[in-house]
Amino acid sequence: MSQLNVPIALKLISSEISHKSDIGGVALNIHHLTQAEEEFERMRRIGKGSFKGVLIQRMASGGKEIILGAKRDPSFGPFVLFGMGGDYVEVFKEASLRVIPINQAEAEEMILESKALPILKGVRGERPLHIEKLVEILLRLSQLVMDFPMIEGMDINPIIVQEREALALDCRILLGAE
Q: Three-state DSSP class for 18?
């Protein structure tokens, strides 16, 4: 059995399946090549006619899951979203929203008013996470949506925020007519 240098994650690639983890389209902590091959074949069966392949990423460990998003509303125009990500999206059912473009103070305010703030600052002896990186990503997301009016919606979920970095693990972009 061939050992991999680092643990990896495999994710089903399909334009028709949005919530891959709900149907078994995500395999985590793969340490051996034979495991990766077995998961690939399993995902190919799950994806059926919409299967495009699998994405292979190194495993991210530690940190907390955050969601960032953007959408164009016909009444309000484009806005950005910040909240707890991953499974916590459904648990907290809470997010901060701002009409874009946003500035640094608005990005910081989105995080400060969120229920995620105490978790990001570190609870029960946990170390604080890289909040400044989240501010930077929010600002870049705001600018991206401003620069590309064909982006109708975007979800980056989850972003794993750690002490020294933030890693986007999945992203979905909805394009429309310009």
A: coil
